[in-house]
Amino acid sequence: MDRWLKTGRLETRHDNRDDSTESCSEVPFHQTKNKGNDDRKGKKRKYDSDYLQLGFHFTGDESEPKPLCVICNEVLANSSLKPSLFRRHIETKHPTHKDKPLEYFKRKLADIKKCSLSSFLTSNEDSKMALEAPFRVSYRTARSGQAHTIAENLIGPCTKDIAKCMLGEKAAKKIELVPLSNNTVSRRIDDLANYVENELLKRIKLNYFAIQLDKSTGVTNAAVLLVYVRYLFTNIVQEDVLFAKPLKTYTTGEAIFDMINGYFEKNGISWSYCVGVCTDGAKSMTVNFSGFVARVKKINEKIQWTHCCIHRQALVCKRIPAELSTTLSDAVKIVNFIKSRATNCRLFRTLCEDFGSFHVSLLLHTEVRWLSRGKVLTRLFELKSEVQAFFIDHPFHLSSCISDVIWLQKLAYLADICCKLNELNMSLQGEGVTIFSVHDRIEAMLKKINFWIQCLQMNDMDVSILSALFLSENSIKLDENIKRVQMFTYTHLRLTFDDYFPNRCNISISNNWIRNPFQGNVSSETSL
């Protein structure tokens, strides 16, 4: 019994065999077992086109075809590739089709091929749509500024529920094919950003362009360098964000230049195609030897530097007379007293609701946001009655200001002039704004200031909407001291605009041929 349990050779002994026969019988057991199977596996049957008369085609590899019934689409083994087995299959499973002509089976085969092709195209189309869908979802997720997990946790389930209710269970199962995980959305956003960046680089590599840069510091004290590029594409001036990168250490002109120059070298952008640089008036940008502009001009002397017109206009707005500056400071303190305390904020909201006010809260002032001043002062003036009611019998030291008629006249005028300056600032922004349109709007603002001075001299208060409304509601006249402050403010604004925009007329005249290229020819022909 032990010899049958041993692995390896199987030794059988017969007394009537000679030694030679006995030695030949010692063959490995696994070789004797598989020899017949290998012989059977090595024989592969071939398909014949005449088998279609019996209702069978083939599928799979041609070296080892498998018979396919064109009636029931059943696939048999290669060993069943025999006419007798085909007749038996037809007679037992499809007896009504055994006498069908060859054309019938050809039509069945054509239907099978057509269905296979349509199912392949359908699955291929579903795969394409399942690949495109996460890109679209990722694009909207990035634009909304929400966390990437919102796609998997909210958008996906909501879309599935909508599809199930409106289109059925089959459509809901297709929605499950769309990958919307956190990592997938992040990768798709990166792919979209890389594609946009590559397309932008292709446009500006062999084309003249100008850049505009600014450094911004957030609430976390992280300095971010923003670089915009303006270039000509299909005869249209385009403006896009080139990159936004953090300045990890210093914000000097050297650090800014190294970052931009490194980006240009990495992406094959030449400084020789850069025709203009626009920055603010910070020392890191404009200092003579170590500033960013000086380092750029060492590489390309033909680059023209421009002080940002929007930044200059914002500097003009900051220069207000001392009396109005005190009024602004008091107004900000009043707003902060209400907004910075949770109890005061809730009480003031309830008070505004009881009054039936159009607004129920004040706005906080932010110095770095240039449009903040006009909006904050306007909201405070509109809610002056509610603020006055809030400060009744209140020990706050500035509570008496909101009941002072003189102070309210200053507040109304300051809100008016800040709103007009905000409108000017907004008009200087946007696509298609050129140096000509900027100078035209600055000139229009100066003409308005001159007109306001004339109206003020004639005691016409209609140019200041909030001031005129306050005076008419209270049936009072403009205080002479405030009239003097308004006159001084208009004069000061006009002089400040001249300081920050000194050569606006000369630039427009010298480059007027760009605005009207045929004006010179017409004048020369007229002179002849």
Could you name the key traits of this structure?
alpha/beta, two-stranded antiparallel ribbon, 7 strands, disordered N terminus
Structure report:
This protein has 528 residues and is an alpha/beta fold. The protein is built from 23 helices and seven strands. A five-stranded mixed beta sheet has the order 5-4-3-6-7. It has a two-stranded antiparallel ribbon with strand order 1-2. The longest helix is centred in the N-terminal third of the chain and has 43 residues, at 102-144. The model is unreliable at 1-41, 117-123 and 522-528 (pLDDT under 50).
Brief synopsis:
By secondary structure, the chain is an alpha/beta fold. 59% of the residues lie in helices and 9% in strands. The protein has helices spanning 2-5, 19-24, 29-42, 83-93, 102-144, 149-166, 169-175, 182-205, 253-266, 283-286, 292-299, 309-318, 322-339, 342-355, 372-382, 384-390, 405-427, 435-457, 465-474, 480-500, 504-510, 512-515, 519-527; strands at residues 56-59, 66-69, 209-217, 223-233, 236-247, 274-279, 304-307.
